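Researcher: Next entry in the queue.
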Amino acid sequence: MGKSGFCLLNLLVAIILSIVLGSCSAPERTQLLDEKAQDIYRSLMCPICPGQTIEQSQNELSAQMRALIREKLEQGQSKGEILQFFVERYGEAILAAPAKSGFSLIAWLAPITVIIAGGIAIWLAIRKWVKGGKESFPEPVTLLPGSTYDEEYRRQLEKELKVFDKKGYR
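Model: Structure for this entry, 170 residues:
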């Protein structure tokens, strides 16, 4: 057996392997198709049921939309093409998530911007409170018998008690 016989044998083995592996991929292809379909179902809102995707909705229209999506996937259309098909018929409101372009981009960027701005504001407030806290408190005072602070307190207390005794409680 020469070089050409060896190449023919390799070619034959490759063809047999591709047939065997190709026949095993039919369930895998169906599973992949199901996953793609489920992803698209979650991406589209039901035009009749408020707040439900066509995956959640039990409406007849949603069932028809799911069948149409499945058919388009089997024809080889991509997710983007299928979504565009439904947007052309129902408008942007059919999408479960707003488009990431144009004015709808605000819906994606606003929450992130608010979170970042809030974090910066909290960090600045804490930083200010920490700095202000160190400067605003006087030195701690120890109240020991015979200290001047204690004597001032006693004098003030006696003075107020005398005023209270004269005027009484009102």
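Model: The chain has a mean pLDDT of 79.
Researcher: Noted, moving on.
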